[in-house]
Protein 1
Amino acid sequence: MGGTVRTGRPPQSPARMAWQRFRRHKMALLGAGLLLSIVLYVTLGAFILSEEYANHNDLKARLQPPSTAHLFGTDGTGRDIVARTVYGGQISIIIGFLAVLVSVTVGVLVGAVAGYYGGIVDSVLMRLTETVFNIPQLFLLILLGKMFSGKIKTFQFLGRSFSGSVVVIIGVIGFTSWMFLARIVRASYLALREREFIVAAQCLGTPDRFVIFRHILPNTIAPIVVSATLGVAGAILSEAYISFLGMGVQAPTATWGNMLDQAYHHLETEPWMWFFPGILIVLTVLAINFLGDGMRDALDPRTVR
């Protein structure tokens, strides 16, 4: 008698296979754990230490080294560095994620439209992309930071005080870092728009917006996710650069970058002022890079690791 012989394991979904590849990437798991720890530090720390305490000046306690009273020591005006790193970390991470959100949105829209329609639309959008490529991001950050420093009023959001320079930093980083992703998305759309399932959708009269965002976009999600992940690290570093130069996020809003700027004149005498925000920047960027590297391998179906 004949019968059906079942061999091997049942087929797995792409998401499950990607997760299995990701789990085998030890550095990616380390990065994910490290990033989660930092996020918990800046999140849960806000429930223990108030923003008012983080901004409180106590000249009697200025420039104290780490102790039981102040685990990370105090700065030049007596503010507790633990509390400053908690609230400064929130802003640095928020700037990173919001800047990347702007960058990904613009990059995906430009790349998708250019790759799908081609022709004159593609030529115009790619020339625009090349033009923005020639704008030096750091120079623009310094220029606009200098122009708008102190001119945009501090505003309240979710119970936090934000200096207006936060909006400038997010906008500049976001609108000057979408070009690489746009080129990647364009290349994917150029390859996918000729596939059978896309041609079939077009023949059935499916509107272009549905073809672009419902049929093609899900097939380009891997490079978008990886680019977004690594972009967060770049945005955090860019904010640190500009804030260290004194032209980034302004008081009363704390960031890891402007904490380094405040420690500039105490590099040798009070090293704790720069060490703790500096090490948090390094660990956060390393964690995101490890995580992005693991996600790149996990989302690549050709990976055999």
Protein 2
Amino acid sequence: MASPTEHPFAALLAGLQGDPDVLGALLSGSRGKGFATTHSDYDVVIVVRDGALNKCHTRYPFRYAASIDCIIHDLTGFRSHTAFGSPEAWSRYDFAHMELLFDHTGELPGLIEQKGRVPDEHREAVLRASLDAYINSLYRSLICVRNGNDLGARLEAAVSVSALLTFLFALEGRHAPFPGYLELELTRYPLAHLPLSSDALISLIDRVLASADVTAQQKSLRIADGLARKAGLVGVLADWGDDYGWMQRFGREP
């Protein structure tokens, strides 16, 4: 039994390590990534042996204690959890920089690494899709600017930023962070290939989101264009035909 002064997380971890049904545990969320604030809770991913899922759900309920949540998988389920293309794939970034608390299987470090990155065999498809989605939303944003639709311009610009970040991170095999982690991610784990600093990228994104600023959007397009060409994605750009040139010239046309 935990002493009155022992932190509930420490008590939980000690109990998990002594439980023969538990094969390993990971710390997810902001604490697992080293992004914790005074408001951060503990998101504990627990991997249990096959056949022990139901009783471990009872033993370790989701709301285990105040500020402690338990997410439980059996080993077989954990191996396929967040598989690329699955309904849970949106949460693959959860596994980026995730802290391994302990592992009795020898498998968990490799599984965390695999889940926390864009699979090599899918990277080109992700790059092509996200680049095209980015250009599409930027194009729609500029059309809204042309038409005097300020709200539409900002909404389309916001969608374009999400696609742009997916593209920029996928170039390095990484998942784009959840929006609330973007500044922390870029500060602690900057993108190596960018032709501008993390602070400059954040400032550029802020300008785009604030007002769908045309100059800022065109600057982001130039950055994406250069990176796309280096990555051999010229075909995605060419598919936009004359509209691609219009996006670059918009606002400077005679």
Protein 3
Amino acid sequence: MTEHVDPRYRALDTWDSLTALHAIWESQIAAVAAIGPALPGLADLIEDALPRLQAGGRLVYAGAGTSIRIAVQDGTELGPTFNWPEARTHYLIAGGAQALSVGVEGAEDDAGDARAQVAAAGIGAQDVVLGLAASGRTPFTIAALQAARAAGALTAGIACNPGTDLLHAAEHGIVVETGAEVVAGSTRMKAGTAQKVVLNMISTQIMVRLGHVHDGLMVDLRPQNEKLRARARDMVARIAGVAPERALDALERCDWRVKPAVLVARGSSPAQADAALTAAGGRLRAAMAGPDT
């Protein structure tokens, strides 16, 4: 369907800009709405992924063209936002890193390269591999999921066409039927939007479940600039219920780590805060409920 011409947009090139923009906007809304039926499957995927990631596995993204560029954007932001280690994010990119900025002809058809990349990365049983292809037919991505699955990894295939090989190659086949594009075959549009939202949902909920979010706040962010340091101070003050000055002092005593700083602002020593968080599996809510905090 993503390659089909939608009859509603056949005269797109004759419309004025406002009319065309309305049509493109409405198509984007439809793309997000198409995710609804996939929510139960996404929830199952997240629940299956958690034990592997809790055991130290990697989050791996596989794809070609627009799909992998969207995936790299998602994965790259996990470090600064949730302090997810960069070493635990990996990308299987058709055509290699150069394909993130330029088109590499034929790369998406190279199944052999996909298998080689899986082997080189040492993909194994603790890893979670997300393969994206709007068409669901991309040979590179299908081969990557097949090889990763054979190596014992948990695999998910995310496609915008039903019944495709990518969905069958993965343990979790997630279909988001976005239908024909405003510009036929331009899957950077509706399909790309849907893929970005799906990845936002998967990665964010995984990070929430792993304890990187407290009361809707990114309590494991890396405060690497003035804006983020001010955000960290405000988070500590809000969660601990203390003045900003006390929050700032606690952060400085805890090397600008928000979660231990909350406990220090509430009266713990840095060593006690670290011990409480370790005992609580890194979850601030549980650490705050402990007997010594």
Protein 4
Amino acid sequence: MTKIIDTHCHPYLNKIKNKDDIINNFFSNWWEYMIVIWTNLETTKESLDIAKINPKIFATMWIHPCDIWELEVENTILELENIYRENSEKIVWLWECWLDYYWLYKNLENSNLSDDEKEKIVERTKEKQKLFFIKQIELAKKLDLPIIIHNRNSKEDILEILEKTEFKNFIFHCYSEDLDYAKKLIELSPDCKISFSWIVTFSNAKEIQQTAKNIPLKNILAETDSPYLTPTPFRWKEENEPIFTRYVIEKIASLRWENYDYVENEIYNNSVKTFKIEK
């Protein structure tokens, strides 16, 4: 029996196929579970509605750090906690916790602000992102949920916060760093999870491939991040979707020179255990 879980997808964001066809395509292959990620408070209802139509679909909560500047941190955390408590049977991890310095700098590139003004905005925004990140960790501890982390040009600050908070129940989503950084994460939290997306199939992703090859299999998850990051061999041809999860698992197995069925089963067990999904 095929045991595949797409641990990170956005089927409501596909532009070519509708979400019902995408979901049906996934489950028509007798695959196991799908975890739908919302992108902000406005898409919360849509993600939860998708999760509620099928006992094998689950959801998470997420607010992008680039969207937090206008939010009041304490009230937002309280709102997210209330959403979780009202839907706890369907929410399996605590949103995507980001420090996103890439877009922070990118959004300032073409502004008419002086360098001094830009630097002040950068410092203020970084501090608010870090505050929100810490508050998310505190809530994750309170609710006994894992957090999923997406790093954009901020890996050292993320590692520092994880060390200071002594928080170990985390998943690194769409892993894009090298083997050395993965080893630091695993040293900090031996049971943490490193989730590989279709980036691991790209020919220029040598450092990511070395990571997938050399870290313990017990630390590995697989995802699509669909509709983004369409995998080889479909790159540039069509949108990504959860049905393609198999390709990232195949790539991980080939990199490790291990039997595909064995790797698929181990990654499935890792996912079930991490998200406390009953088999």
